[in-house]
From TrEMBL:
PANTHER family in the record: GLYCOSYLTRANSFERASE (PTHR43685), SLR2126 PROTEIN (PTHR43685:SF3)
Gene source species: Aurantimonas manganoxydans (strain ATCC BAA-1229 / DSM 21871 / SI85-9A1)
Signal peptide: none
Protein name, per record: Glycosyl transferase
Superkingdom of source: Bacteria
Length: 297
């Protein structure tokens, strides 16, 4: 924890987790590497066993149980972050570079017009079979310095690592959309665009991290494939995703799943995702498409 009065901003790290206690324990343990320590660490899981384990290993962590589903768990974390200025959301398989929090503090303190910051992901295992913690640490250590501007404006934060100014969240009662169930595909875009009217959303070059892309605990390919169609349509209808971006997102997913299925891509259930895409398109034609339909799959 930071000494009292050491910083004008109180920064907390929040982690929604489910079914990955070993990785979670490693990720939380590695937070000791931060040059600028967090003022609080919040963890939310639907499984009491995860809560008991992390609380026993790290007494300083505020561990809580929440309803299953990433948006629901992140809303619980928002509600618990009553005494912080900046809340950083990270996935339970995201590794922070040692200067990550120091970079956040510098940027948020120096740019009051910024409402959200997302970092530079130097390796992302979600695009393949995933990375181990040790592989992720090696990628962090060998990451080449980025060139170009310190800050770049982006449409939305990347949910595995995005920090929000809590003043805007509290004042405008912003929340994650609980109509996006389970893994909450595109919940980061929806929340980011809810924040966007109240400040800029930026990617910080020097806030570096690695997303392991762990496959355990993720929803089956069929469900994710359905969400890849249903969730963008839901966001386009409510106005937190432009039609141009939403249709481009759907197109990219369809092409990737079709190509991966034909090629026999390892590490990702492309056939399952493609079947989910097809089921969602069929429901769209029948006028019954809804993100919640994955709960019956």
């Amino acid at each position: 924890m930071s000494p009292a009065g050491a910083s004008p901003l109180r920064i907390a790290i929040s982690i929604a987790t489910a079914g990955r206690p070993d990785i979670l324990e490693r990720v939380v343990g590695l937070l000791d590497r931060q040059v600028r320590p967090p003022d609080a660490i919040l963890v939310c899981s639907p499984d009491q066993r995860d809560i008991d384990r992390i609380a026993a290993a790290f007494p300083q962590v505020r561990a809580m149980q929440g309803e299953r589903g990433l948006p629901r768990q992140r809303n619980r974390l928002l509600a618990e972050a009553r005494d912080v200025d900046i809340l950083l959301f990270i996935d339970d398989d995201f590794l922070l570079g040692p200067d990550y929090l120091a970079t956040l503090e510098r940027i948020f303190a120096g740019h009051p017009d910024i409402a959200m910051i997302t970092g530079r992901v130097v390796a992302d295992g979600i695009k393949g079979p995933g990375l181990s913690v040790d592989e992720g640490l090696a990628r962090l250590a060998s990451a080449a310095p980025a060139t170009g501007a310190d800050l770049a404006e982006v449409y939305n934060g990347y949910g595995c690592n995005m920090a929000v100014r809590m003043d805007a969240v509290r004042r405008h009662r912003l929340r994650f959309d609980e109509a996006l169930p389970l893994y909450g595909w595109l919940e980061d875009m929806d929340f980011s665009r809810s924040v966007a009217p109240y400040g800029r959303i930026m990617r910080a070059r020097d806030a570096v991290g690695v997303h392991l892309g762990a496959k355990s605990g993720r929803q089956p390919g069929l469900r994710l494939g359905y969400s890849q169609i249903a969730n963008p349509v839901h966001l386009m209808r409510k106005g937190t995703c432009s039609w141009q971006k939403g249709l481009a997102q759907i197109g990219r997913n369809l092409v990737a799943n079709l190509y991966g299925t034909v090629r026999g891509e390892a590490g990702i259930d492309r056939p399952g995702r493609l079947a989910g895409n097809a089921a969602a398109i069929a429901d769209l034609v029948r006028l019954r498409l809804s993100p919640s339909r994955i709960l019956a799959m």
